[in-house]
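Take a look at the protein record below with the fold in mind.
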Amino acid sequence: MSGLLRRYLTRSHTLLLSGVLLLSGALLSGAPPLSAAGVAAAAPAPAAGDGPTVATRYGLLRGKTGETAHSYLGIPYAVPPVGSLRWKPPAPPARWSGVRDATTPGNPCMQQPSSTPWGNLAGPGTPSEDCLYLNVHTPAQPSPRQRPVMVWIHGGGFTVGSGSFYDGGTLAAKGDVITVHLNYRLGAFGYLAHPGLAAESPRGLSGNYGLLDQQAALRWVRDNIAAFGGDPGNVTVFGESAGGGSVCQHLVSPAATGLFDRAIAQSGCGFPLPTQESQQNNGKAWADTIGCADIACLRAKSAAELLAASARPTARWVPNVDGAILPSQVTDALESGRLHRVPVLQGTTADEGRLTVATTYDLAGRTLTPEGYPAAVRALYGGRTDTILARYPLSEHGSPAEALGAVLTDSQFACLQSRTAGLMAEHTRSYQYEFADRHSMDYLNLPVGFPLGAPHGSEIRYVFGGVTGTPAQTALSEKMLGYWTNFARTGVPYAANAPHWPQYPKVQTLAPEGITAVDTFPRAHHCDLWNGPAS
């Protein structure tokens, strides 16, 4: 049992569930694209009943008309990374002639099927290496002004997920923004580091291809989003879990300079990453297990073979500190002030760790007993166990599962994000939140023997809008959508009929019962234990 828990939690620690870059754009008609020779090519007029047509740098797109928002789906932002381009940095897409249909999402990137309370995170389509596509949603109502752009990076532990899993139409329409959701390479396809790949690179780097995909999508936004009615000078990058972690990695990446103007990191920022050297050693060891001594052998393997081999529990598919794309650990960069000075909004959910506990125990047909609680903590924290148990006694929690959930919430999410919010506050406007709808998962009716509360990922649907629940939950969603989109608009989170949101060290508690700013967050989450007295 302890081995199972340790493996699951090691994966979930890097499983920054995150997001798809949603590029929503307003309809632009009459702007013909340039041909490869730089000559304007005539855009065919859409027939009656056809969807809206937009001219990008690469050709014409025809999207789908919606009552409140238009959608442009499956837009290529890079050439397919297949064949000799497997494990290469992304390159711009090829131009096309005629009008490209943009009514169907592109395929998700290669991944194993994922079973979560919300369904298979791959979303529609069949996983494929040919997956570097994005979706744009624009408000149906025309605007004389360019709209703010919100680019969503999905989560999923850098191994699962897609940009199409969440629809950006409601957020675009209600928030009067353009949304962009993107796919990026996952697992071994996105994060394999290997000495042979480093030898191919002019900079001696390998891995981080998924991170480079995200930056390529941001460059596509900068160069094309005006055609959809978006403002290329007002781009917010936002994501959750692995997406939130990616947002913070872009905040300290020199390669992301000038690609975004605000940042939102949900339940993921500052997670420690392996070094380039260690990740290359791990990559070589992994390649050896499938009989490949060089990159030519790895490229000759089918995508299905690599995907099957990548699921081995010893593999760790995450970004690495390579000294260039990621010059250092995120927290080290923040401590030294080496970050893009843009306003940042970040936070966590009140019960992040309870979903991990539910998946490891209840949903797997097991129960965490009072006797098993100390053993579970010891499996994770070893010699610190007695100190931790003294701070998280069973007597202060409703069940052993809730006690372990609190330990995981504080150690892996709450206190780390409290630290990064504080470090950023020394250099830019920094806002922190805690999502605290303790009934946010009730609608799923999961067979769990303890309250799930507000676990990891539960806030996402509140941000994207369309929550169906109690009137208080619906009102909370509307306020959160307002906070997020107005932050994208101005760099300050505010919403109609919602309380003022002060900067860090105040933390905005977002709950159906009321929204309040508190200064007790580090104490409530025992952050002196996890971060040290300075938290």
Notes: The first strand starts at residue 18 and ends at 19. Residues 1-49 have pLDDT under 50 and may be disordered. The chain has 18 helices and 14 strands. Residues 237 and 301 are 35 Å apart (CA to CA).
